[in-house]
Write a structure and sequence with these properties.
Oligomer: single chain
Strand content: 25-35%
Number of strands: 12
Number of domains: 1
CATH topology: TIM Barrel
Shape: globular
Helix content: 25-40%
Order of helices and strands: EHEHEEEEEHEHEHEEHEH
CATH superfamily: Metal-dependent hydrolases
CATH class: Alpha Beta
Length: about 250
């Protein structure tokens, strides 16, 4: 069993060791019987996974060490003081020509922004990665809403998953495309979506997806992707209230 934050950013201005430790602690608190996993969704100008894989972390009192697994497809980060290890999976956040965000989970390949959304989905499929269409504040409205609705009609639940995030405040009901997608069999993942100004890691690991699927510690990425595709999943954790939402948006 896994508890997976499916929408994680570690920006250059973060103290990465502290943010990863907080992620592990919070995921463990949400599901003490599950393995904590963080799926990175890095922008075109962020390369944390590659840096962690190739160089490790700068000296940090929070981290005991890291080990690269699966030939570079995943990393385990170990902490002290009873904090469980965190498995880190690579991934990319791509902005399409249609100004939608698409996540490529499980692969750190540079796909590039600015392509049509259908082409972006096709490129992720070629990588055998997981395609996720994440909700974002204002990003499923107006013309982009029409694009999302078209995608839900054109594709099947096997082609991509939907992403919910802790950017959606507790008073904000589930968006209509998410409700429609779930009724059609599309799976919806929970993730925290940390923002660049949240250098203390305030929300990382607070909202996640519990995955009832066998976890192979020798093949974490494969286990995670298969579990998200095929396992029993449930969103867990908290999202901000009105004040917290304002604070997140204003920085």
């Amino acid at each position: 069993m896994m508890i997976v934050d499916t929408h994680v950013h570690v920006y250059p201005q973060y103290e990465a060791g502290n943010v990863l430790r907080l992620c592990a602690e919070r995921l463990h608190a949400l599901a003490p019987d599950a393995v904590p996993v963080a799926c990175l969704t890095e922008r075109h100008d962020c390369h944390f996974f590659a840096e962690l894989r190739d160089k490790g972390l700068a000296e940090s009192s929070y981290v005991l060490g890291r080990e690269v697994l699966e030939g570079g497809r995943s990393i385990i980060v170990r902490f002290g003081q009873g904090v469980p290890p965190l498995f880190v999976i690579p991934g990319r956040q791509i902005v399409t020509k249609d100004r939608l965000e698409v996540h490529c989970v499980g692969n750190d390949a540079a796909i590039g922004d600015g392509y049509a959304v259908d082409e972006t989905i096709g490129r992720i499929r070629e990588l055998d990665a997981l395609t996720v269409l994440p909700w974002g504040v204002g990003k499923w409205l107006f013309k982009r809403l029409n694009v999302v609705n078209r995608l839900l009609k054109k594709y099947t639940p096997e082609d991509f998953l939907l992403g919910d995030s802790a950017m959606r405040p507790s008073f904000w009901p589930e968006p209509l495309p998410m409700l429609t997608g779930r009724s059609q069999g599309y799976r919806v993942l929970g993730g925290s979506d940390p923002l660049p100004h949240e250098v203390s890691g305030r929300w990382v690991g607070c909202y996640a997806t519990k995955v009832d699927f066998p976890f192979d510690r020798d093949h974490p990425s494969r286990s995670c992707l298969c579990g998200l595709r095929l396992g029993s999943i449930a969103r867990m954790g908290k999202r901000p209230g009105p004040l917290g939402f304002v604070v997140r948006m204003r920085g």
